[in-house]
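Extended Data, panel c. Modelled sequence:
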Amino acid sequence: MPDVDRDRAWLLTVDGAPQSYVDLDDPEHLEFEYARRLAHVLDCAAEPGAPLDLVHLGGGALTLPRYAAATRPGSRQQVVDFDAELLDLVAEHLPLPADAGVTLHAADARAWLEQAPAASADVLVADVFGGSRVPAQLTSVEYAREAARVLRPGGLYAANLADGAPFGFLRAQLANFRAVFAELALIAEPSVLRGRRFGNAVLVASDGEVPVGVLARRCAGDVFPARVEAGAGLARLIGSATPVPDGHASPSPQPPPNTFTLG
């Protein structure tokens, strides 16, 4: 349920875990680390202010669509979320500006993606959690192929994931996308990458160029600094992991107790 943080700012929690933060007066304010990192990807997707065709799998409180509407006016955005009640709640209490260019779809993310037109999106953002876990239907190599099909040449895919050492889930996800896309990068806090704690990591993929240098500078200079892994460093993390087909796909691991809950 959503909790009011202050008059015009809202914190959306699900089962005690903070999911989205929205400041209606400042849509460019991003409170959570993973949201800031996804926004860095959006910022690098085209020249500043240029409109984009965006697909968001997972809606939450529409934090990132609001950010894109403010920073890239004229963008066309499709938001897909399975929770129709949540979309209605957000529309009632946190209405979008009339010119936001956002269309909401109450649907299963994988099923919607499979029906989406080919080469129709410049950026595809996946931030889908059933409770605190990424659903299995979004963790296979077939899903990665559907994402690639919907993206235009040179488009960017960005996904919010969560894992901890020894990174079995994260390594498999990287293997899935390495089998489909030409370039990959991973954004995460150094302590997560070193296996010291369970946490979020943003996977970035493209059939063209992932702007690793620009992303690295933005993430290093963020108020929540993060590291960008690519190339040989990412290959070492993937190691011997292989792509996971639909028949063997599983949800992301259950976080340790109190990892994402409000304390």
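The chain has one domain: 32-240. This feature is highlighted in the accompanying rendering.
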